[in-house]
Amino acid sequence: MTISAIDTGSVLYFSHDELPTVRPLTQEAVLPLIRRALAKARHPIPPAMEVKSFSSRQGVLFFVLPRLPEETAAAPLC
């Protein structure tokens, strides 16, 4: 497992051996794994998170970003 911090959250890479055997992988299946990995690495754990995953032959890359409250997400940028 590899963790990298980015400006808006964290990026985690897990090999297939480190992932749960549940197929297809669901967010409910990987959230405990992601939370444990972030806690172990002392990275902040967002109370509500958005997880985006990208599969490869060797494993899965997860982008973990804090989920914004509904009113903040809907507010105009300018």
Quick take:
This protein has 78 residues and is of the alpha+beta class.
What does this protein structure show overall?
- This protein is 24% helix and 35% strand.
- The chain has two helices and four strands; from the N terminus they run ββαββα.
- Strands 1-2-4-3 form a four-stranded antiparallel sheet, with helices on one face.
- The longest helix has 14 residues, at 27-40.
- By secondary structure, the protein is an alpha+beta fold.
- It has one domain (2-74).
- The protein starts with a strand and ends with a helix.
List the helices and strands and how they pair.
Blueprint: E1 2-6, E2 9-15, H1 27-40, E3 49-55, E4 59-66, H2 70-74
Q: What is the distance, rounded to the nearest whole angstrom, between the alpha carbons of the first and last residues?
A: 39 Å
Mass-distribution shape: globular
Radius of gyration: 14 Å
Enumerate the spans where pLDDT stays under 50 for 5 or more consecutive residues: none
Total number of β-strand segments?
4
Could you name the key traits of this structure?
alpha+beta; 78 residues; globular; 4-stranded antiparallel β-sheet; 24% helix; 2 helices
